Amino acid sequence: xxxxxxxxxxxxxxxxxxxxxxxxxxxxxxxxxxxxxxxxxxxxxxxxxxxxxxxxxxxxxxxxxxxxxxxxxxxxxxxxxxxxxxxxxxxxxxxxxxxxxxxxxxxxxxxxxxxxxxxxxxxxxxxxxxxxxxxxxxxxxxxxxxxxxxxxxxxxxxxxxxxxxxxxxxxxxxxxxxxxxxxxxxxxxxxxxxxxxxxxxxxxxxxxxxxxxxxxxxxxxxxxxxxxxxxxxxxxxxxxxxxxxxxxxxxxxxxxxxxxxxxxxxxxxxxxxxxxxxxxxxxxxxxxxxxxxxxxxxxxxxxxxxxxxxxxxxxxxxxxxxxxxxxxxxxxxxxxxxxxxxxxxxxxxxxxxxxxxxxxxxxxxxxxxxxxxxxxxxxxxxxxxxxxxxxxxxxxxxxxxxxxxxxxxxxxxxxxxxxxxxx
Length: 423
Known about the structure:
This protein is an alpha+beta fold.
């Protein structure tokens, strides 16, 4: 049968206006609130103003499935589905379609069906993209042919998957905590090396030329003509390809800008060795540019003078991440004021001490990142195992009634050891 036959009602969302503090204010569930690994929602806190009469037919009820119809990203396709379980008075945003199941169809089971379809690439095959946003062809998506068991079996499979996915989720939380602990220990180690009472903190602007990146106008195609674009151009999009905290130098960029573009804007070509710090999205990302390049307006830049080693400055910025986080402002989009970065003070020992710190920091990194890699590999194995479990259960390949607790423990242990993703 087609997936659309399981849907009794499909409801579009609204975004509304800024909250006014009156009776029309209502919580709006956004794609950003999706807790996709758990197929549920994080706490919804966005309040918008939507006339009550428009809310009436759009109020979310427990069991509703929320389908992401617009959004996605460079590494994530649109088309994710999560389940609403809250009793809060809320509606969905305009980037979401609410799917309300027909009588006789268990919404928990169907949340897993949608997860299986997403993993199989069905949502990707139904996606259109003409701008930076992906749009799901909902009609094509709901035309998928699926086999659905009776309601009692749907409930049994959903109970089984709820239980097993909860166990996998607990392990995932433990792994996430271990990874965060290792990363925090790395930053703490850098901080102990660099931020010491006996070393005076000095204004960074006196020892490095401070600047900001710029972006030439996109309205001038000649600035971006491929044949003339000779200068690497580093933007926030390039950060997504980098494992933050590990990369020292960046040399590859996804775009290039022409000399004409630089000459007709405030953008400049920075020399290799310049230290950059993101002050908007991915706030706090820092690196050294390994070749002459330009950077977008989202970055602060420092070209070090003779008393300051670029790599030492990079390590210092990473050690000062807790301080940089305290400088962030904004509710939805975090950023750091440029004057705050211009006023930044850093510890400055003599250059030989800086070089010694760089060497010791390398040893800390050599002990930290392999451990984080191992944790991430285990997490990926568990994610693969969960996805395989969901697909096999909802497709009938796995008879959940015949699986003992001992068998599931054995399979989960194997997945945890990254030995096998399959059930």
